[in-house]
User: Which sequence fits this backbone?
């Protein structure tokens, strides 16, 4: 790992990944792939594997204090998590390796696997930003009413989130949290804690599907350094969350993610092949 200006920015951004997870229970994975690709020059397909490990381990560490505070619903985590874990594992093990290196040519631009992954990721960033910016009033149902699980919808949502996680290496907290609130009737704070546990389990299990095939290509020093910084960020974020207005912060972060998503789409389509891929 060479220490130039981009690397220093990358190390600072690695801490932001954890701060975001600690503050708003999501958003960290949306930063991870762009940080790895543009600041550390990691190949996009490999970056999605790195992201699974970084986000998975950071979320696991972040889930411990939430569990001790009674903010994790284990039954919901199991019902939502199992189809998600199965989907992400098979996506990384079978679907991603099966995608050809070059998909097709479009107007003189060669649409490669790496380019398609970055565009899909950027679209996901835009979708995530909209859900963060919108001022939704989520009716929190407190746990004194009987919880009724909408099993078919939870299984479907878990599978869809798992496939997306496998393809682009994003934890999908922005998809999981609304699903837990609406489909499992969890209060918002419990949904955030439960989401961290689900993200941790499916990301780390998804990563195991990559290790056997990509172990020799992986820069383990970079991976461990970024993960440690993200974990430090989680603790900073948890402490800041007690002092900062979460709603305002979430909206501000949403605008940042929107700008990043649009930037990636323009960069990848207008200047294909200018980053490591």
Assistant:
């Amino acid at each position: 790992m060479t220490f130039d200006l981009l690397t220093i920015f990358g190390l600072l951004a690695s801490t932001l990944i954890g701060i975001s997870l600690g503050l708003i229970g999501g958003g960290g994975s949306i930063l991870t792939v762009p940080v790895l690709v543009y600041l550390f020059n990691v190949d996009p397909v490999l970056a999605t594997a790195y992201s699974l490990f970084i986000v998975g381990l950071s979320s696991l560490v972040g889930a411990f204090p939430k569990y001790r505070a009674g903010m994790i619903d284990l039954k919901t985590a199991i019902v939502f998590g199992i189809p998600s874990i199965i989907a992400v594992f098979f996506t990384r093990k079978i679907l991603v390796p099966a995608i050809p290196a070059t998909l097709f040519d479009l107007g003189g631009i060669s649409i490669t696997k790496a380019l398609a992954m970055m565009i899909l990721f950027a679209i996901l960033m835009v979708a995530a930003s909209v859900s963060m910016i919108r001022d939704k009033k989520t009716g929190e149902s407190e746990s004194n009413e009987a919880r009724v699980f909408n099993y078919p919808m939870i299984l479907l949502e878990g599978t869809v989130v798992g496939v997306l996680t496998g393809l682009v290496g994003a934890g999908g907290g922005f998809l999981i949290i609304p699903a837990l609130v609406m489909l499992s009737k969890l209060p918002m704070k419990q949904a955030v804690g439960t989401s961290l546990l689900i993200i941790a389990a499916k990301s780390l299990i998804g990563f195991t599907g990559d290790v056997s095939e990509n172990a020799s290509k992986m820069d383990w020093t970079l991976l461990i350094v970024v993960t440690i910084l993200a974990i430090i960020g989680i603790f900073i974020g948890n402490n800041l969350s007690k002092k900062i207005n979460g709603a305002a912060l979430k909206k501000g972060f949403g605008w940042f993610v929107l700008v990043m998503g649009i930037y990636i789409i323009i960069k990848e389509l207008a200047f294909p092949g200018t980053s490591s891929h």
Summary: The chain has one domain: 5-270. Confidence is low (pLDDT under 50) at residues 138-143.
